[in-house]
């Protein structure tokens, strides 16, 4: 099950998980066309799909939806926190409403949904896996994105606390930290990232949502059974570039 499964990384993860043999429940916001497309792709792979609308601007709406999807699918072994929102506002101009909206969706909503999912897994008694989709900005700052960075940094550390506390229940918790991915959030939805030049990234291009979906599917698999509390950065080498950028700007 995952939040925000009707577009971008979430939709790619829905398909990757179905291809790996999972029945998939997902939440969605705004795009019903994306829901139909994701559902059709899951069913074409011979798996079941279930969906519910959810707007995490009201974080407490999350747990009942998690529980409803789990009941429809007959249990919960995997939960992915993917729903997210960003902003581009200088710190001195950031208003409280934007700050609260971003943290509600990216952090508080993620916390409540993951908590509900973990409680279900504990009651079931069979363990499970939780994956939190953060960002490279879990690790490095980005000017004009203070609320987003605070939320993603918080979710990254929350991931590690969850991993510590839930290990006794057989629940693994990891995060995936994408760099620039060709999605609606980055203004490149439905664009082939191989056609976009990014000289500041060693890979030379943005990532494809499917490349993040595959990492999520791996973390959900038995092959990642000894991984917990990790942040898997998938950024084409972007975080390697600090010293290179300094040199390019005339530094030592």
Keywords:
252 residues; four-stranded parallel sheet; alpha/beta; Rossmann fold
CATH architecture: 3-Layer(aba) Sandwich
Report the structural category.
alpha/beta
* Strand line-up in the sheet with most strands: 3-4-5-6
Q: Give the CATH level 1 class.
A: Alpha Beta
Task: Note the overall shape.
Answer: globular
Task: Estimate the mean pLDDT confidence.
Answer: 94
Order of helices and strands: HEHEHEHEHEHEH
The major β-sheet equals:
4 strands, parallel
CATH superfamily: NAD(P)-binding Rossmann-like Domain
In percent terms, what proportion of residues is strand? 5-15%
Radius of gyration, taken over Cα atoms and rounded to an integer in Å? 18 Å
Helix run count: 7
The quaternary organization reads as single chain
Number of strands: 6
Q: Could you tell me how far the N terminus lies from the C terminus, measured between alpha carbons in angstroms? A: 48 Å
How would you sum up this structure in a few lines?
This protein has 252 residues and is α/β, with parallel strands linked by helices. It has 7 helices and 6 strands, in the order αβαβαβαβαβαβα. The chain has helices at residues 8-19, 32-44, 62-73, 96-124, 146-166, 209-220, 242-248, and strands at 24-28, 49-53, 78-81, 128-133, 171-178, 231-234.
